[in-house]
Amino acid sequence: MVHYWRTRSIGFGLEHLGFLTLKFPRIVAAAVIALTVLAASQIPRANVDGDLMRIFAHSGEDYDAYEQLSNTFGTFENDIYFLVTSPDVTDPDVLEALRNFAFDLELNDFAVGTMSPFTLRKPTDTGGSVPAVPEGMSSREEVAAALSDLQQNDPLMRNLITPDLTGIVMIMFPNQELTRGDGNKEMIAQLRDLASQYESDKVHIELTGPPMWTAEMLYAAVNDQVTFTVYGFALGALIALLSLRSFWGAILVSATPFLAVTWVTGIVLLFFGSFSFLTIIVTTLVLVIAFAESLFFIFNWIAYWRDGMDPYKAVDTTVKVVGPASALTMLTTLISFASLALTPGQGIQEFSVTGAIASLLNFVCLMTFLPLVLKLAIRLGFKIPPKSSIVLTAPMRVSWFLAKRFSRALATAAIALTVVLFIPYFLVEPRFAFEDFVAKDSLALDAATEIDAGVGGVAPIYVRVPLIDAAPEMTDADFETVRKIHEIVEKHLGQNKVISAASFSHYQDSGFTRQDVLDSVGAFMKRRFITEDGKQALVTGFMPTIIASEDLRRLVDDLHAEIDAAGIKGTEIGGFRILATFATENIVQGLQLDLTVSVLVNLFLIGFAFRSLRVATATAIPNLFPVLGAEAFLWWSGAGLQLTTVLSLTIAFGIAVDDTTHFLSHYLHARREEGRDHNEAVKHTMERIGGAIVATTLILCSGTGIVATSNLPQVALFGTLFVITLALALIGDVFILPALLVAGGKFFHPLGGIRK
Q1: pLDDT per residue over 409-451, tens digit each?
Q2: Is the distance from CB of 55 to CB of 278 less than 8 angstroms?
Q3: Neighbours of 600 (CB within 10 A)
Q4: How sure is the predictor about 2, in pLDDT bands with cuts at 50, 70 and 90?
Q5: How many C-beta neighbours within 10 Å does residue 736 have?
Q6: Is the confidence at residue 529, as pLDDT, over 90?
Q7: Alpha-carbon dihedral angle through residues 573, 577, 578, 583, given to the nearest 10 degrees
Q8: Contact 623/653 with Cβ under 8 angstroms?
Q9: Are strands 48-49 and 275-276 parallel, antiparallel or unpaired?
């Protein structure tokens, strides 16, 4: 018997881990306890890193260009914006209160610099500088006149003072070292507390900018994880209860997912130190996969027990029969995760490695912990539960009726539909939308759009300009180059939506040198206009916070074309939005290729495992159908190929083939071990495990369906697409696969080396 399983196993011998559990239960139990203690010790460190740059890090030349730009000039990408609104900004007392707020902001421990109407200075005739907003004003008229003059004539003030003088924007530049880890959370808490001290019935202060969006994302991600775990576990247990019609049976099913999630959470924290908003999804996937596999295992165990087998012997038999199929399903899921590593990018790589580790740990938990728990349950007096509800078995009766009567028609229709679905597969295009990465109902995003409408904006686009003369004070020729680019960018973004060294022309017209003007803005801000060595300058434009990816690509193309037409060479356009849009397109195209590789490799693996090209042929249609159907939904809905949608398709495919694998494994067992003919083996398999297939799919869909309620649109879309793919996979396994097998007739008779 041992020789048989070694030479004919579809699990490539990995199920021997289960055999070791049966042979050395105490040693394996000790190892399970040790791994559990290790994993549990890491859980108090649990945290989520919401840094979007983690997704795009090391993803290619777009990221490298952005990193170089950031290191050279510093950027506005991590700044915090304060939108201060009041109908009484021109009241001298209100103005002075806001000045005090600006000064307190500058003294904040997390600030390395600030910019506001109160911190900016302008040059004087004596060679020094004075506050841009004069001190000591005593009347509304005086304040209004001073602010209006600045708003209309000073280039930076145009971006910081609203035209109607009811709003002022202040910007704080955080110390990036201090905001690492929990620093960002502490900084925001301090800033909110500071703002609250200056708020009143007449003064309202809103915070926005990337750090705020990150904080909202983190809050949503943490809440999601709690929700996904609690409700996913509860739904899985409920479906197990309804499927087995046994309270203690549901407890047995739930034990493995609980331990698997503990293991995965602890090991991921041990390796990576934190979750990202992508890798945190893996724990939910582990939960539902573990529920599905555990329920499938217990369904088979109870079936053998119900057939009259000794319950202890039924556990051993289930390990031997289900173990190889579970090993193969683990490999298909692991390959789906691992295929993602073909695409560069730190976030994708971490998701790939995390998923691969999780798949392996899930299988180890199933082959070690579950057999031990089942034997313990028998010893404690667990009784065989009643037969499964007819709700689970009814679809299989309908399926067999259709397969027996209309197999060729169903098979032909399924093949034709699958072929047609290749059309949207080639039509659907990559899409990136920044708002999909920000929490729904984001107050910070609302504040950002208010700033967009009133003054400059919080979505910068940068043009790096090489300077020929390399003079720190900028020569006339280099200044003219900067001025031309400034005008080109302003033409596309709108008046007062661009800042650069050319913004200060009116001061030069008044007799001040460029050196005077650049020195007056301070060393920190000067760096955002020109490098210390005078070899590079920066022109910064401010786009709308929400801009479609196709509009952004068009903007970049137009800017490149006009700059080239002006005869200016060597410029480079960048920024986080540029990086995210173009890098996402490249990453998504890579992930689409990964999906194709995953599908082909997994189909080959299944055929190789069963030692039959015919098996691979049988699995192709029912498993291509759900993936192509989901991509058709993306094309039809306009959602397009996004980062999480391709991830969802790839992983959902790896999971979707699980039921196909279990189906074919039981079919082959019925042919080889029980001597059944082709059609009888198909019918027996449907009766034997049909209810388990329906129940496990319900668990997978309900568990990942919770993800669709996420407050993060990208994560919610992941869950929605996952459910669609798995629901279509259920149709493929319950209706298409049996019809194909029956319609294939003699073609499938010699399956896996069987010749009768």
Answers
A1: 998 998 999 999 999 888 888 777 777 777 777 776 777 776 7
A2: yes
A3: 13
A4: very low
A5: 28
A6: no
A7: 150
A8: yes
A9: parallel
Give the DSSP letter of residue 182.
T
For residue range 256-311, what is the model confidence (pLDDT) as tens digits?
Answer: 999 999 999 999 899 888 887 778 778 878 888 888 888 889 988 998 898 889 99
Q: What is the 3-state secondary structure (H, E, C) of 109-162?
A: CCEEEEECCCCCEEECCCCCEEECCCCCCCCHHHHHHHHHHHHHHCCCHHHCEC
Residue 201 neighbours by CB distance under 10 Å: 6
Range from 225-229, 376-380, 511-515 carrying the lowest mean pLDDT: 511-515
Q: What mean pLDDT do residues 42-61 have?
A: 79
Burial track 266-283 (b if 16+ CB lie within 10 A, e otherwise): bbbbeeeebbbbbbbbbb
**Tokens found for residue 310:** 């000794």
The pLDDT tens digits of the residues spanning 334-346 come to 998 898 888 888 8
Alpha carbon dihedral 494, 499, 501, 502, in 10-degree steps, equals 20
Write out pLDDT tens, residues 167-202: 888 888 888 788 876 778 888 889 999 999 999 888
Cβ atoms of 118 and 102 within 8 Å: the answer is yes
CA atoms within 13 A on the CB side of 745: 4
DSSP one-letter code for 430: B
Which residue is associated with the tokens 């005090």?
100
Q: Is 50 helix (H, G, I), strand (E, B) or coil?
A: coil
> Distance (Å, rounded) from C-alpha 302 to C-alpha 317?
11
Q: Cα angle at 736 between 730 and 738, to 5 degrees?
A: 105
Report how far residue 415's alpha carbon sits from residue 421's, in angstroms, rounded to the nearest whole number: 10
DSSP 81: E
The tens digit of pLDDT for each residue in 92-105 reads 999 999 999 999 99
CA gap 463, 486 in Å, rounded: 9
Q: How crowded is the C-beta side of 592, counted as CA atoms within 13 Å? A: 18
CA atoms within 13 A on the CB side of 251: 9
Q: CA of 750: how far to CAs of 342, 400, 616, 663, 744, in Å?
A: 37, 21, 14, 17, 11
CB 625 within 8 A of CB 414: yes
What are the tokens at 733? Answer: 């396994």
**Whole-number Å distance between alpha carbons of 713 and 438:** 7
Q: Which residues, in sequence order, are bridge partners of residue 721?
A: none
Q: Among residues 172, 183, 171, 169, which one has the least CA distance to residue 51?
A: 183
How many Å apart are CA 137 and CA 147, to the nearest integer?
11
pLDDT tier for residue 507 given thresholds of 50, 70 and 90: low
| pLDDT greater than 60 at residue 107 | yes
CB atoms within 10 A of CB 229: 18
For residue 133, how many other CB atoms are within 10 A of its CB? 25
Other CB atoms within 10 Å distance of the CB of residue 558? 13
| Interval 78-84 mean pLDDT | 85
Distance CA 290, CA 285 (A): 8
Query: What distances in angstroms separate CA 230 from CA 219, 359, 636, one per listed residue?
Result: 17, 21, 33
- Residue 218, both tokens: 């983190």
Q: How distant is the alpha carbon of residue 257 from its chain centre?
A: 23
Residue 275 has a pLDDT of 82
| Strand-strand pairing, 536-543 and 572-574 | unpaired
pLDDT (average), residues 640-663: 80
